Amino acid sequence: MFHTVEELNAWLGQRCRALWSELLHPQYNELTVADVLELERVKMMPMPTAFDGYVERTVRVSSTCLISVARNRYSVPCERVGQWVSSRLCLLGSWSSPMKR
Length: 101
Prior knowledge:
By secondary structure, the chain is an alpha+beta fold. The protein has 2 helices and 4 strands; from the N terminus they run H-H-E-E-E-E. The model has no long low-confidence stretch (mean pLDDT 89).
């Protein structure tokens, strides 16, 4: 049915927007989800520019062509053995950590 993930996402987006006009809002039973969204839009702040958050560290490439970042090992080109390289660690998706007491 869909040849790419982008096609699937486009269809899902269209379908969700169509359903917003049909579904009643859970808190405001007399309004649809689309109605409440329009009321909220006037109070919404503009989206800020994308935040490219990451932690950058300088690490040394081992004799086995590996670097260690956050307790994980990653292979790098053999030409880099013994050199210091920059690594960037960023969070993709959502993640939560148990609180330490």
